């Protein structure tokens, strides 16, 4: 908590002041991409969140049927698109897109 004091003096010399207690919360930001392409071409091959000031983190990724395919509570852990450590085959143009269902 921080105390802020404001002092005001008008053109007639009258003074007034106020002191307020203010809570300054730390700044935070998070970036989560909405797509990635884990095709080993060196561009966008993994999925991860990047943030500043994040104290707690949990990411869960589910397949279209609702099965959990990836989970982490470490913001520095990346998902490579594999499921249970196995690369997904038979998808020559693997692309994952994320967002809210409409």
What key phrases describe this protein's structure?
102 residues, mainly beta, two-stranded antiparallel sheet, two-stranded antiparallel ribbon, 8 strands
Shape: rod-shaped
By DSSP (H or I, 4+ residues per run), the number of helices equals 0
Distance between the termini: 43 Å
Low-confidence blocks of residues: none
Strand order of the largest sheet: 1-2
Q: Tell me about the biggest sheet? A: 2 strands, antiparallel
The fraction of residues in strands falls at: 25-35%
Tally of strands: 8
Task: Specify the helix fraction band.
Answer: under 10%
Secondary-structure class: mainly beta
Give the ordered list of helices and strands. Answer: EEEEEEEE
Written overview of the protein:
The chain has 102 residues and is mainly β. The protein is 0% helix and 34% strand. The chain contains no helices and eight strands. The protein has strands at residues 2-9, 15-22, 29-31, 35-36, 50-52, 59-62, 68-72, 96-97. The strands form four sheets. The chain has a two-stranded antiparallel sheet with strand order 1-2. A two-stranded antiparallel sheet has the order 3-5. Strand 6 and strand 7 (68-72) form a beta hairpin. The two termini are 43 Å apart. The mean pLDDT is 83.
């Amino acid at each position: 908590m921080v105390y802020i004091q404001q002092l005001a003096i008008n053109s007639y010399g009258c003074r007034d002041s106020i002191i307020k207690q203010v809570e300054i919360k730390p700044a935070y930001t998070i970036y989560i991409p909405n797509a990635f392409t884990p095709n080993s071409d060196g561009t966008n091959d993994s999925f991860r969140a990047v943030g500043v000031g994040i104290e707690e983190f949990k990411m869960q990724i589910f397949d279209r049927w609702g099965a959990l395919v990836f989970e982490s509570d470490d913001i520095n852990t990346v998902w490579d698109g594999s499921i249970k450590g196995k690369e997904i085959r038979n998808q020559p143009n693997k692309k994952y897109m994320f967002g809210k269902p409409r």
